[in-house]
Amino acid sequence: MTTARIGLMGFGRIGRNVFRLLHDRDDLDIVAIADVAKPEALTYLLKYDSIYGRFPVEVEYRDGVLHYGEKEVSFHDSRTPGDTKWTDSDVDIVLDTTSRYRSREALQGHLDNGATNVVLTSSPETPGEIPLLLRGINDAILDGSPEIVALGSNTSNAAAPILRILDEAFGLNRVFMTVVKAMSNAGRLADVPTDAYRTSRAAGENIIPAETNSAEIITQVLPELTGKVMVTALNVPVPDGSTVDMVAETSRAVTEEEVNEAVRTQVAARFADVIEYVDDPIVSSDVRLNSHSGIYDSLATLVTGENMVKTITWFNNGWGYSHRVVEVAAAIAAGGGAE
Description:
Blueprint: E1 4-9, H1 13-22, E2 28-34, H2 39-47, E3 48-49, E4 53-54, E5 59-62, E6 65-68, E7 71-76, E8 93-96, H3 104-112, E9 117-120, E10 148-150, H4 154-170, E11 172-181, E12 208-210, H5 214-221, E13 229-235, E14 242-250, H6 256-271, E15 275-278, E16 294-297, E17 302-304, E18 308-315, H7 319-333
Parallel strand pairs: 1-2, 1-8, 2-7, 8-9, 9-10, 11-13, 15-16
Antiparallel strand pairs: 3-4, 5-6, 6-7, 11-14, 12-13, 14-18, 16-18, 17-18
């Protein structure tokens, strides 16, 4: 088996999630991490995690190297994609998890410094500049072996398959989604002045309306829904577990049973790797370690006026998304095509 050598740009939530998923794999090996934070602090956050618990093997930072189990990875103090000499570690694929560098020009720095491919764990700064892949929707993008591919957001990965199923089954005239999002490191611990007043408020004490570009991301891969989708977001004080609360007007009359059956059937046939269909009365903490992009809550489905449908799809703060990152990296390493 050929092992692809992986470089991580950014060792925040997604970066550490990916590290946890790859630490014992043979086909993908993280050999370099680029981050501006102190390696000792990053090692500590890898070892002890408030959501996922202690790292499964011993980790230690010494002499510029992170040792974990029988493996090791080098740290690089790098601020931009152009700062890291990936050639020093013979890196094949860079996973840019910073969400700061989202243009083709910026990410070119990874390629210029030795990487063969780049996976962006965000959406392109300019729509259409970088191929945008949402797993289960347009995986064929990988067949073209793009040098750089973007994977969108947690929300878009959770919502897009459900939107496709409902549109194909019943036709969608318009859709309004409210994303109820768990806390992230973008939130404030206390009220602190910022340019955006609402986001300056304490995340653990408030429900905070927030902006989201989810509609833009979704319609890039589902252009048939252009002009039909609007999305707003509410940040809420829970540590993990979010929902897409979707209200859609269908083109024909439907029942709750028809909606659930359409989703159940299509998830089993086409989306089993990315969406889970559940009949249990789950709550936010139940999806914390779920590997799917979205968890469809069949008990929450409602229909009123014959063609107004409400559904809830759960997702977590990046654990499911990180599985998609790993799948795409594995597919690229194998020569393209979905894993």
